[in-house]
Amino acid sequence: MNHDHYSDNYILGILNSVETIALTGASPNPARPSNGVMGYLLARDYNVIPVNPGQAGKEIQGQLVYARMADIPVPVDMVDVFRASEYLSSVVDEALALNPRPSVIWAQLGVRDDAAAARAEAAGLKVVMDRCPAIEYARLFV
Fold first, then answer.
1. For 58-87, what is each residue's pLDDT tens digit?
2. Domains in the chain, ordered, with CATH?
3. Who's near 110: CB < 8 A, 6+ residues apart?
4. How far apart are CA 22 and CA 137, in angstroms?
């Protein structure tokens, strides 16, 4: 897939189909983008589960934080990646090891790794990179 452009239908299909989102790189700091996006998605009735090893066992936005995606006790539909591009490959590896697997890997603004995306897509996952689901939601639904 060409990751330089996504059709509105592709993005809408993802946003309409996912319910549970693992947010990797979640921050408890309200000034951090991951915190604001998490709050935005929670307010739109998504089940957002924060993942951050340094915050595991604590709460962010009222949600229990897990150290790894494998620790989350419910199936995840989408992984929202608030990590630098060099970590996207390891996030994809962790997502592909889940059973069941998520259906979407969504890498935030500025996050892109075409090789990691190709691996995820080869395994049947949809991939969005260098986009923010909160921005896309506001653009497409409001």
1. 999 999 999 999 999 999 999 999 999 999
2. 8-141 (3.40.50.720)
3. 85, 130
4. 17
